[in-house]
Design goal:
The complex is a heterodimer of chains A (367) and B (172). Chain A has 367 residues and is α/β, with parallel strands linked by helices. Helix content of chain A is 42%, strand content 17%. The relative contact order of chain B is 0.17. The model of chain B has no long low-confidence stretch (mean pLDDT 91). Classes of the chains: A alpha/beta (367), B alpha/beta (172).
Chain lengths: 367, 172
């Protein structure tokens, strides 16, 4: 099993952020921001040194917790410092992005890294739809069409027009061509049947994030079955699970840290105003929105949590066994880990990478 | 989209009977749609072929360059069909197509090999290729409005159809 370090590039003072999304730009001090990115790059380099085989990037907007709204820019910078790891773009968010632009960024990254790119397609969390004004009801359709267009743009040798449902381009001729032919290693990050089926039909890998092992297993069971119906089975490195982690020397130390987070109201995750959250979820589900009731329900201006808790918390043995469960039960071959919990400093994270590299990673590689 | 001033004649050769109804209805708003080449009259005309009809349209355009003004081949199977027929002879004649030509495939059409579209584009002197998303071989049946808009725009503007002419102004 391989390990992937999520290059979140979190802003150093993210512990001071309000939980509500978006985080106001007023919280960003340029000097702190510059240092935060340098610290984040250093973490990626150290992860590579400690045996991580992938470094991943994720598209998240308007928040310093994962401060890579344009992950291709970040990936290009890290790719120049980390010379052997796979550069895994687990963005881009398909509903938000112009697929032709995404294809151009991805093929350029595959060239810059001489074929080390892994690309993941995903829909994004509900708040992300709001960044570029995407109707949540259309996100699924834009994702499915966007994936088709990206793969076509990477593989069609002659200039072409695209007559889609959401996209119409009369001239597409993407440069450069990818180093990996016919297109770079690719996966679909999803929990939804239609996108899982798309991955199986197109012989793409699968990514699943932040949910318990049994729930993940019910998704990978379907994926394996549908791959079989399409006459193939994925390789281990085509199956990626992303989880968040806090690793300490002992289980007791890790638990003590975790309890402190709850006590201080620093449980990870972002929050949306409940009225906004309700409308997004209803619209995504294709339901009619009763705005009168939405506003009546949020008269107090309450904030609801919208993010998962930590996936792996413990000492090396406990964390190893929890990750191993995703390998054994679900067939996951790559574990992509988010280390930068909000209350941690750069030094804390470096210490964790060191501990993980010494005590957990060697055992994972034997799986 | 075609403008109200479009008054030329378009002939549709439908290789799969009935599939072209939406296209015929869509184009008839702006063109005189002839039922056959014989009914087109003596003036130059646009020629739209669907499936096997596209193969016939291609042959007709090659044989009658003086008559065909603009050509649209929808789901043609004449070049590199999936069943592996040798089409080298026809491919060698593609440079002789003299009119602007649009070649349209459904993104999921498996009746031709994947390189087929590129061959038209590479060899016909003035050729655009287009892929219609969420459609297989029967584009007219699966994405009728998309096909009407695409073909109509091409017939009207030919190779300049790549130039965006819709406004993006939200609030003037």
């Amino acid at each position: 099993m391989k390990a992937s370090y999520l290059g979140a590039m979190g802003y150093a003072r993210r512990r001071e952020f309000p939980r509500a999304w978006p985080t106001p730009p007023s919280y960003n001090d340029p000097a702190t921001s510059v240092q935060s990115y340098q610290d984040g790059i250093e973490e990626c380099e150290f992860a590579e040194e400690m045996g991580f085989e992938w470094v991943s990037f994720s598209e998240h907007h308007y928040s310093g917790r994962i401060a890579t709204g344009t992950p291709a820019v970040m990936a290009a910078a890290v790719a120049e410092r980390c010379k052997t790891v796979k550069i895994a773009m687990l963005g881009p968010l398909m509903p938000l992005n112009n697929p032709v632009r995404a294809a151009e960024e991805l093929t350029l990254l595959d060239n810059l890294t001489n074929g080390r790119l892994v690309m993941g397609f995903l829909r994004g969390t509900p708040n992300e739809d709001q960044v570029y004004g995407v109707n949540p009801a259309e996100g699924r359709g834009r994702m499915l069409e966007g994936m088709d267009l990206i793969l076509k743009a990477m593989t069609e040798p002659e200039p072409f027009s695209w007559e889609g449902q959401y996209y119409q381009y009369r001239t597409v001729a993407v440069w450069p061509r990818p180093v990996q032919q016919p297109f770079p290693a690719a996966l679909v990050a999803t929990r939804s049947d239609d996108a899982v089926r798309y991955a199986a039909e197109h012989q793409l890998g699968l990514g699943v994030s932040f949910i318990p092992v049994d729930e993940t297993g019910s998704i990978t069971d379907k994926y394996h079955a549908w791959c079989g119906e399409n006459g193939w089975q994925p390789r281990p490195d085509q199956m990626v699970f992303r989880g968040s982690i806090y690793l300490a020397e002992t289980d007791a130390q890790a638990q003590e840290w975790f309890d402190r987070q709850i006590d201080h109201g620093r449980a990870p995750g972002m929050a949306l105003r409940s009225s906004v959250s309700q409308v997004i979820q209803a619209t995504r589900a294709g339901q009619e929105v009763d705005y009168h009731n939405v506003f009546a329900g949020s008269a107090s201006g309450d904030i609801v949590g919208g993010a998962p808790g930590l996936t792996f918390v413990g000492g090396p043995d406990k964390v190893f066994n929890e990750i191993k469960a995703y390998h054994d039960r679900c067939g996951m071959g790559v574990i992509d880990l988010f280390f930068q919990q909000p209350s941690l400093t750069h030094a804390d994270v470096m210490q964790e990478i060191d501990l993980f590299g010494r005590e957990v990673l060697p055992r994972l590689k034997e799986l | 989209m075609a403008t109200a001033e479009s008054t030329g004649t378009v002939v549709i050769l439908d290789g799969a009977a009935g599939q072209s109804r939406a296209l015929r209805d869509g184009l008839s708003a702006h063109w005189r749609v002839a039922e056959s080449i014989a009914a087109a009259g003596s003036e130059r005309y646009g020629l739209v072929g669907i499936s096997d009809g596209a193969n016939a349209a291609l042959q007709h355009a090659l044989a009658n360059p003086e008559a065909v003004d603009v050509l649209a081949l929808v789901s043609p199977t004449a070049i590199r069909p999936a069943d592996g027929d040798d089409t080298a002879e026809l491919e060698a004649r593609l440079p002789d197509v003299q009119c602007p030509t649009l070649v349209v495939f459904g993104q999921e059409d498996r009746s031709v090999r994947p390189e087929a579209a590129g061959i038209y584009r590479e060899r016909i002197p003035n050729c655009n290729i287009a892929f219609v998303y969420a459609a297989g071989h029967d584009i007219a049946g699966e994405r009728p409005q998309a096909l009407v808009n695409l073909v109509s725009d091409y017939l009207e503007r030919r190779e300049t159809f790549i130039v965006q002419n819709r406004s993006s102004v939200i609030n003037p």
